[in-house]
## 1
Amino acid sequence: MSVLNLKVDGRPYSVDIDPETPLLYVLSDDLELRGPKFGCGLGQCGSCTVIVEGKATRSCVTPVGTVAGYEITTLAGLGTIEKPHPIQKAFIEEQAMQCGFCINGVIMTAKAFLDQNTNANESQIRQALSGVLCRCHVHVRMMRAIRRYAEEVRA
Amino acid sequence: MNLLDKLKALTPEALNALESAGVSRRQFIKGSSALIVGFSMSGPPSRANPIHRAAAQRLDGAGNNRLDAWIAISADGTVTAYTGKCELGQGLYTAQTQLIAEELSVPLDRVKLIQCDTALTPDQGTTSGAQSHPTNFNQNNLALAAATAREALLHRASKQLGVSVDELVAEDGAISAKANPAKKVKYAALVGGRTFGIALNPEAKRKTPTEWTVLGKAVPRLEIPAMATGQFEFVHNVRVPGMLHGKVVRPPVVGASLQRVDETSVQGLPGLVKMVVQKNFVGVVAGKPWQAIQAAHKLKVDWTPGTRLPSQGTFYDVLRNQKPTQDTFLVNSKDVDEKLAGASRVVKATYLYPYQMHGSAGSSCAVADVGAGKATIWSATQAVFPLKNSVAMLLGLEPENVRIVFRMGSGCYGINGADTVSYDAALLSQAVGKPVRVQLTRKDEMAWENYGTAFVIEQRAGLDSDGGIITWDHESWTPILGGRPGASNPGNVITGFLAGFEPAAFAARTPAPDPTGFGNSSNAAPSYVTGCVGGRCGGTGAVTSQRVLTHNVRSLFWTGPLRSPARLQNTFAHESFMDEIAALVKADPVEYRLRHLHDARLLEVVKAAAKVANWETRPSPRRGVGRAGSAAGRGISCVLYEGDNGYCAMVAEVEVNQDTGAIAVKRLVIANDCGPISNPDGLKNQLEGGALHGVSRTLLEEVTWDDQKITSIDWSTYQPLFLDADVPRIETVLINRSDGKAMGAGETATTLAAAAIANAIFDATGARIRQVPFTPERVKAALTARA
C-alpha cells in the first residue's frame, strides 16, 4: 500500500492503496464515482473509459500508480444534469441510449477523439469507436449525437 | 438517489397507503435504518429452516386489487404510484409515469413512480416477454388503478362541490365544474394524506387515446440526463456502509465438482475476510474489490474432470437425434401426411440456430445484506418477487424476511447473470454477516449464463398445382436446461445449482399428446396456418392442413429466455421457408405472403413496410446478377409476436460480396403495430435497437465450446456489432392503432432480422443460407452450392 495523490475531475484526492490496483476500482469504489464502469476488465469494451491528460484511457487495465498526479476526467466531471457538457447535451437531446451502461465509454471515447481531431470524418469517428460496445445497439442515435457534437467542435 | 433517500422521499401518505393496501411493508421500511447500518454478527441462520416452495408463479404475478397498493396522493398533491414492471432500458419507467400523469390529469413532474421493490410495490411477477404493456396499459393493473383513482376523486368532488360527475372536469391535479371553473377542489383536499380504501374498479373509465395529452407523446426518458452525466445509480453503484467485496470461483469446465479447496493458498492475503464453500459453490470475500479479485485468482481449488462435450461440428446432428425428448403438438390436423402425399410438389428445408448469449455490456452485479434472519438484496433481476422466494430457499430464511430492491443493471435482454449474481452476493453476505457486493468477471458471466437456446428446425410444405400451400409441417428440436428460477427453482441458474439445488426436472414425453387448444407457443406455429384445434382457430393464416411438433431435449449448457426466445429461431425458419416456397413457384415474396395470410393487421404491416421500402414486385432472386463481385437484394419477413402481442414486418436491403461472402446490411424498413403508442420515440428506439440486435445475432453471434468448456468467454471470442460497425439506415413506420389493445414492442424487430436478411441474400445471389450466424464462410459455401 502507498499513499497516492490523484487529481480527478479537478479535485485532489489522497488514497492509501496498492499502486497496482486498476484505476477503475479507485474511481468507482474509493471515490464512488458513477461514470466509469466495469464491463470486461480486459480493455475490450470501453465501459471504464476516462480521459487522462486528454487521452481516452481504459481505467480497468491502468494501474492507479501510473496516473498519479495526472489530470483525470470522468463522465461526472464533464457537466451536470443542470448544466451538461455539449457532448452530454447531444446524447440527451438525441435520446441516444437505452440501458445507459455503456454511455460512459461512448461519450468519453468520442469526446477525447473529437477534441483532438476536430475535422475527423464519419469513418474516422467510427474507427475511434471500434473498441466500444453498446449491447442495446443504439448505434444509429449514438452516431447522430456524436455528429452533432462534432459539428459543434468545428464551429 | 440511494435507497435511504428514496425511502425518506416517500411521503407519509404514501407509506400509509401502502399499509392500507394490506401489505406489511411499512414495518420493513421502519426497520430499514437498522438494515443499512448492518445486522448483528450472530452468524447465518440455521440451514434446518424449511424450504419454501411456492406454486408455479404466473408471469404477471399476483397483482393487487386494492387501489392503495398502486396509488397514493399526498397533502402536497404529489401522486405516488407503485409498479411491479421495471425499467430495463426499454423506456418503461417513463411510459408508466406518462400513464399515471395522463389518467390522473397531473403534470409529469408531480408523479413519483416507485418500481419493483418487494417491500413497496405490487407483485407483478417478471418484467419480460414484451408483457409490460399488455399488463399495465390495458384495462387492468396500473392503468386500471389510475382510472379508478380518477373516478374516485371525481365522485368525492361531486359530493363536495354539489355538481354531478358528468359536469366535472379533472385538470392539473384538481377537479372543477365545467360550467363554473371557480368551483374547484384540489386532489390533495379530496384525499391528500388519506387512503382511498377501495378496490380497483374493473369498469373504471380509461381516457381514450384521442384525449391523451401526455401519454402518446415523445416524452424524453426521465433517466437519461442522469445517465449522460454519470450521476445515475445502477446496481453496480449501490454502496452500503460496511460493504465488502466478493468474487466467485466457478468450475473450470462443464460438469466438474469440487474436490478440495486449499485455504492456505490465500492465507495472509491483504484484505481477505473469508473463503466460502457451500457444496460446489466457492467464493472469497475481501475488503476491496481488487483484493477479492486477487484472492479468487490465487485460491487453489481442485475440481473433478467435467463432462466430455460433443464436438461443435457435429452438434446439430447430435441435437436432432438426442433422446429422450419432451414432445408437444401445437396443432395437428391429422391430414398432413396424406396432403403431402397428394401434393403436386413438396418443399423441404432444415434451419439451424446456435446458442447465443445475452452478453450484457457490464457483467452482472448485486449487493446483498444478510444477517439476523433477514436479507436485503439490490438486484437487476427482472423478477423481484420470484427472486424473494428463491433467495429465501437458498438462504434458509422465511420469504417475508427477504427484500429484493430492483436497481437497473447493464442491459437485460432476458435472463442474463442478474439472478445468479444475486445468489452469489446473498451466499457470501450470509457467510460473513456483512453486506457484500459481487460483480462477475467477464468470463464467469459468459461461460455460465443461461444462453438463448439452439434449434434444429425441419419444415415441409405441400403445394397445389397453382403453387399455393396446402399443408405445412413443422418439427423442431431444442435443448433446455434450467431457465428462470421462478419462485421455486434456484437450481435453474449456475449459482443455485453449485450451492446444491437441482434445475427443474426434465420431463420426457413421447409421443406428444393431441393438442387440446391452440397455443402459438413462441411462434412455433407459422403465421400462414389457421391454428385450428378442436374447432377453434387461433392462427393468422389460410393453410388448414397443419402439424407443428416440438421436441425439447436436455441441454449441455444453461438456457433461458434471450430477447425473442424461440420466437426468433422459429420465425427465422418460417419466414425463410416461406421465401423459399415463393421462389420455387416464382411468386413475389410479398404477394405470396399476402395470399396466405388472413389477419388484417398482419397484412397491413406487410404492405406498409413494402410500400415505404419501394418494394419492387417480382420473384426472387433478382434476374441478371453475375456470380462474382457485389450483388444487392431485398427480403421481407413478418410476425405477429407470440400470436397475439405485436405486429411487425421488416424489409432488409443487403449487399453481398460474392468474392468474400461478407454481408453488408444497407437498409431496414420496419412497420410496427402494437396498438396505441405510449411514447413514439421510445418505440422507435426499441425498434431500431431491436433490429440491430437482430442483425448482430444474425451475422456474428455464436456460443462456442471445445471438448470440455465454453470458449466464447470475452469480446474477442464472442464478437457482436461494435460501434464501428457499418450499420444500416433504419426507417420505422409506426402504425398507431388507438382503438386497439396495448401490446409489446421490445422484441418484434429482433424477431425479424435473420429471415429478412437471409431472404435479401437469396434475392441478391440466388444462394440460400439456412444456418445462423451468416459468417462469410457460410455465405461462401451457400454461394458455391447454388444451382
## 2
Amino acid sequence: MSEPLLSVRDLTLRFGAVTAFAGVSFDVARGELFAVIGPNGAGKSSLFNALSRVYEPCDGAVTFDGRDFLRLRPRQLAGIGIARSFQNLGVFPALTVLENVMVGRHHLMRAGALRGGLGLARAEELRHRHAALEAMEFVGIRSLADAAVQTLPYGLQKRVELARCLAMEPRVMLLDEPVAGMNAAERAEIAELVARVHAERELTLLIVEHDMAMVMKVAERILVLDFGEPIAIGTPAEVQRDERVIRAYLGEELEVAA
Amino acid sequence: MTQFLQLLFEGVSLGATYALVALGFVVIYRASGVINFAQGAMLLLGAYLISWMAVDVGLPFGVAVLAAMGALGAFGAGFHRVALRRVVGQPTFVLVMITIGASIAVSAAVEAVFGDNQRLLGDPWGSSTFHVGAITVTWVKFWGIVVAAVALAVYFSFDRFTRWGLAMRATAGDEEATLSAGVPVGRVHALTWALAGAMATLGGLFLAGFPSAPAHGLGDAALRAFPAVVLGGLSSSVGAVAGGVLIGVVEVMTSGYAPSWLGTNFYAVAPYVVMIAILLVRPYGLLGVKPAERL
C-alpha cells in the first residue's frame, strides 16, 4: 500500500481536566472511505473538530499528504483539497441553491472583483457556473438552482451542502454526522449518495457518524471510540465481532458488589 | 401642492443621503453583527478630507471626492485589520465598544488637525439653484439624489453579481461554513469596512453641502440615519435604503407641516416616532427577518 493520505498519530485533546480523546492513531489511504463511530460522548465530534482545525489538539501529530496538518489555518484547508460538511448543516439559508454551491468555487476563481464586476471574466464565470451545476446534477438538485435554500426540506439542504463540498474539487471530504436528525428514508438516500460520491468521484472520505447502520453499509474501515479511547479498528465485519465494541454499545452486566 | 412637492424633493434628497449612511451600518452589521458606532466619525473625516483636498490642496472637486472615498475605504479596512482582527472570538459587545472608542478618537483628531471652525466644502455648486415649474431645486440636493442612486446601483450589482459580493452574503449567512468553503472571511470583513468608509464619505459630502458645511456636528447626522437602519431591518440592504428615504421624507415633511405647538425642532424627533411605530408592528423592521432558532 502506498503512503497514506491522512495519518493521525497519538492525537490527544483535553479541555482542562476533561479528556475529549487520547492516543488516537489511524491512517486513511488514498481513495478510502473511513469512518469513526462510537456511542454518545465517545469523543467523535471533538475528533472531527480537531481534524477540521476548529480545536487545537494538546498532543500528537497529523500529516496530510506529507505535510504537517496541524500548522495549517482553517482557511487554508480548502486550498489543499479538504472540504467539510457540518453536523447541523452549514448552508446559507437566504441564498439560492446555485449561489450556495458557487461559494465553494470561490477559492478556485482568479478574476479580481473589478474585472469580474465589469463582466470581463465571462469565460471564467461560465466555467465555474458549469462546475457548480454539474455538482448539483450529481447530488440530484440541479432543477432547484434558483430556489432559496431556506425553502427546502432538511434532506435537500444536506444535498446542497454536499454539492458545495463537491464543487470545491476536494481530495478529501470530512463529513460530520451526515445523517443526523434525518428520518429512515432520508438516511438511506444520503448513505446511497455518499457511497456514490466515493465510488464515482474517487474521493477520500472521512465520516464521523452516530448511525451504525449507515456506517456498516458504506465504510471500508472503521475506528471505534469509547470514552475518548480507540477500542477497535478494522473492516465493518471485524469491528462488528469485536468483544469491546459489543460491550461498549450493548453495555455489560454489572456485577453486584457483595 | 407646490410646497408638498418642494418638501418631497428635499425629503427624498436627504433620504438618499441617509440611505448611504444606513447602508454603511448594514454592510458591516450583516457580515459581523457589529453596529459600527464610528460610522459618524468616518462620515465627519470623509467630509473634512474632501474639503481639505478641494480647498487647501486645490484638486478638482470630483477627484477630491474619489480620493477621500479611497482614503476612507483604506481607513475602514485598516481599522478592521489593526483594531478588530485581534479581538476575533470576543463577544460582539467588545467590538462595538472599540468602535465607540474609535469614534471619539477620530472626532478628536479631526478637531485637532482642522480646528473647530466651520470650513468650506469646496463644491462647485454652492447654493446655486434651478427651477422645475414652481419648485426650487438646489444643485447640491439634485446631485445628492443622482450620486446616491449611482452609488447604490454600483453597490447592489457588486453584492449580487461578483464573487466577493457572494462571499459577503455567504458570510452573513454562516461564517464558519463560508470559511470552510475556502473564502478568506477576514478579507470579507475588511471589505465591508472599506465599503462602509466609502459610503460614509459620500454621506458626509451631501450632509455638509449647502445650507450646511463641514463642521463638528456632522458626526451626529449618522445617528439621525440610525432610525433608518433599525426600521429597515438591521441586516437588510434594501431595507436600509427604503428606511433611509422614508426617514428623510418624514424629517423634511415634519419640519414643513408640523403645527407650532409641537415646537420648532420636532422634525428631529419625528424619525424616532416613525421608527417606534413601525417596530411595534414589525419588530424586526420592514424587511428584517426574524432569526430562526433550532429547537
